[in-house]
Amino acid sequence: MSNVSNPAPGTRDFILDVSVSLFAQTGYDGVSMRNIAKRVGISAAALYHHFPNKESLYLGAMAHAFADKARAISETAGAGATPQERLHGFVDRFTALMAEDPDFRHLLQRELIDGDESRLRLVAEHVFREPFEAISALSRDLDPNCDPHMLAISMAGLILFHFETAPVRRFLPGVREGHDSPAMISEHVKRLLSRALLLTK
Amino acid sequence: MSNVSNPAPGTRDFILDVSVSLFAQTGYDGVSMRNIAKRVGISAAALYHHFPNKESLYLGAMAHAFADKARAISETAGAGATPQERLHGFVDRFTALMAEDPDFRHLLQRELIDGDESRLRLVAEHVFREPFEAISALSRDLDPNCDPHMLAISMAGLILFHFETAPVRRFLPGVREGHDSPAMISEHVKRLLSRALLLTK
DNA sequence: GTCTATAGCCTGATAGAC
DNA sequence: GTCTATCAGGCTATAGAC
After folding, report:
1. pTM reported for the whole predicted model
2. Among A56, A142, B6, B7, which has the minimal tally of Cβ within 10 Å of its Cβ?
């Protein structure tokens, strides 16, 4: 499920749910206030009762989509006794998290291209700092000689890039059923990272 | 340099150069025909003498930006005697290629989110099939037990994700000067992949 | 090959009734 | 809190002069 909440129509939360979905699909410039209003079931003017302008609505939608993600991602990197167990737990759960919320992933992708400095700083501090520190700590334990910042980026990217490229990979040679599945992605990434970092098996 | 050519103003090639740059920066919906015309130095109506509509201009700009990229990327994966040499050559040159052409990278990122099926098929067949096969072949030589399609994606993603996240990484903990540099990125990726795939060092 | 002018539509946003 | 009506302006695209 893309969004957990299921509020009654007409409320501010429902507007945010609709907005998250539309902004994720076609981006800020690809969605009009009229589009959103129609999907919500109210007039465009009514939207301005809940949000002063389009940008505020967009920022509200971002906050709505990213709420509680910070802790959820952080927790993927924490549990487990050995570094190997923590690595496998992180890969499994981070992969599942990205698979179950495409809207979050798409908003993130869009923000990486279009986000201005202030918006990226906001997202970095309120959403990614906490989980990134957890993944960095795991990186430090896995390979003390490797830059933890770069290794954390690599671990996340290894997982995310398989999702990002899914729309185009279906037209590339060697593709097989299941290449898009969370199970296959996490298995592949675990195998790669285990051998690179733990030198076992 | 983002674009090699440096044609005289007013020509079709100059329109394409300008369009590539603008579409890469703000996306299809973020650029108007008037924007492009102004930067080219002609009226919007004159644009329609060279291209029948906005979408044609966009597709022309894509073809222009992606021209010769296929072979350039393919060649990054070919040379070298041992698989290890080929791996290092691929990582070094692919990283350099992505660093020297941000427009290409941004258009690619945007196409992965917004491209419809026909456009993605076009890009896949005319730009990525050839280099992807070269990288897949390298993957097969590096690790015959690993799915070459997935490994090829992982190798490219490991490099690209460091560029993609550069705008937000500067606000994340542990960042250091040079984390964005091609040299540091390729060193990091080579180290990671060498240990994962060759089990040496 | 480029121009000005314009058609027709969509945009974000507001005014004011209910 | 939602509506209809509307404003001012931007959009793609075209017509027709030069």
Report:
1. 0.94
2. B6
